[in-house]
Backbone:
C-alpha cells in the first residue's frame, strides 16, 4: 500500500550499475514536444479529465452540496422505509431528483453529498502524503547517492528496514492506539513514513550514476558546493523519474486511506470517506447494491486513472528520450 516498485527501480535502484536509465543518458527533453505527445494520447487525456473532475468535485464540495440540497451529515428519514429495516424508498437505492445518487440505508444520508466530501478527504490525504513522501524520498536519495560511504550505508539500512517491515500491520496498530483527533494528519504521517524509501532507492541509484557524469565534474572544478551540485545539476535530470513515481504513488495512497477506513482505523465517522462508505455498505449490498456501487466506482476509477496516467507518462517520457 505504498510505492510499488516498477521498471524504474530495476534500472536505477541496484546501486547505480545501470547506465541505460533516462536520467543518466539524455539531456532535458523539450516540454512542448512531450506536451503534444501527451495531448495526442486519448487514454492519458481521459484519465487526466476524470482526475480533474474528482479534484474539482473535492474543491467545490460545499457548492455542489448546496445545489443538491442535502449535506453529508443530514438525515432524511422520509427517504427510507422504517417498516423494511430502513431500505431506501424508490428505485436504485432512492435515486431521485432530491437525492441524485440515492440515500444510505437506515439513516437516509445523501450519498452524493458524502461522495463529494469523501473525495475531498481522499484527495487531501493522498496528495499530502505524496508530497511529503516525494520530499523525503528525493532528499534522502540524493544525499545517499551523492555522498556515498557511511551516509549511504545508514540511509540504505533504514530504507531496507522500512521496506521489509509489515507496513499495513504497523499502520493498523499505531492508528488503533492513537486518539481520533487529527486522524487525517496522522494518516499522512504514517503513510509517508513507510512510503519514502521506494522513491529514495530509485533516486539514490540514479544519483550514483549521474555524479560520474562530465557536467558534475565540471561543476566541481568550477568550485560549486555539494548542495549546488545536488540540487542544481543532478536534481533537474531526475525530474521525469520523480514525476512518474509521484503519479504512481497517488493511487496507492488513495487505496491505503480507503483500506484503513474500511478496516475502521482510518477516517473517523461521521467524516465521509469512500472506504468507510464501502465498509458500511457490506451488510446492505444484497438489498441495496447502489449503496456499494457509487463509492466503489468512484474509488476504482480514480485509482485506475492515476495508475494508467502514471504508466502513460512514463512511456511518453521514455519515447521522447529515445528519439533524442
Residues:
Amino acid at each position: 500500500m505504498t510505492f510499488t516498485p516498477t521498471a524504474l527501480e530495476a534500472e536505477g535502484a541496484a546501486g547505480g550499475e545501470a547506465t541505460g536509465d533516462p536520467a543518466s543518458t539524455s539531456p532535458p527533453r523539450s516540454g512542448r514536444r512531450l506536451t503534444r505527445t501527451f495531448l495526442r494520447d486519448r487514454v492519458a487525456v481521459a484519465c487526466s479529465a476524470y482526475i480533474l473532475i474528482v479534484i474539482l468535485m473535492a474543491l467545490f464540495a460545499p457548492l455542489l452540496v448546496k445545489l443538491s440540497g442535502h449535506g453529508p451529515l443530514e438525515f432524511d428519514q422520509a427517504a427510507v422505509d422504517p417498516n423494511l429495516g430502513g431500505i431506501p424508498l424508490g428505485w436504485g437505492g432512492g435515486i431521485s431528483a432530491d437525492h441524485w445518487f440515492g440515500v444510505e440505508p437506515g439513516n437516509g444520508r445523501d450519498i452524493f453529498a458524502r461522495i463529494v466530501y469523501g473525495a475531498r478527504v481522499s484527495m487531501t490525504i493522498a496528495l499530502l502524503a505524496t508530497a511529503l513522501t516525494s520530499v523525503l524520498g528525493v532528499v534522502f536519495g540524493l544525499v545517499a547517492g551523492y555522498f556515498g560511504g557511511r551516509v549511504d550505508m545508514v540511509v540504505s539500512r533504514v530504507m531496507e528496514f522500512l521496506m521489509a517491515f509489515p507496513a499495513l500491520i504497523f499502520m493498523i496498530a499505531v492508528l488503533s492506539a492513537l486518539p481520533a483527533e487529527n486522524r487525517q494528519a496522522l494518516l499522512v504521517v504514517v503513510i509517508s513514513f513507510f512510503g519514502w524509501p521506494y522513491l529514495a532507492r530509485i533516486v539514490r541509484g540514479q544519483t550514483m550514476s549521474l555524479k560520474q557524469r562530465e557536467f558534475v565534474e565540471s561543476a566541481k572544478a568550477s568550485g560549486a558546493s555539494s548542495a549546488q551540485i545536488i540540487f542544481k545539476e543532478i536534481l533537474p535530470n531526475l525530474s521525469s523519474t520523480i514525476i512518474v513515481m509521484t503519479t504512481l504513488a497517488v493511487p496507492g495512497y488513495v487505496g491505503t486511506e480507503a483500506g484503513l477506513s474500511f478496516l475502521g482505523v482510518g477516517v473517523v465517522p461521521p467524516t465521509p470517506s469512500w472506504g468507510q462508505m464501502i465498509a458500511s455498505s457490506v451488510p446492505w449490498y444484497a438489498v441495496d447494491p447502489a449503496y456499494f456501487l457509487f463509492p466503489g466506482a468512484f474509488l476504482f476509477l480514480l485509482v485506475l486513472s492515476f495508475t494508467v496516467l502514471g504508466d502513460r507518462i512514463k512511456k511518453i517520457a521514455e519515447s521522447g528520450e529515445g528519439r533524442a
Remarks:
- The first strand starts at residue 80 and ends at 81.
- The chain is about 70% helix and 0% strand.
- Residues 111-147 form the longest helix (37 residues).
- Residues 1-29 have pLDDT under 50 and may be disordered.
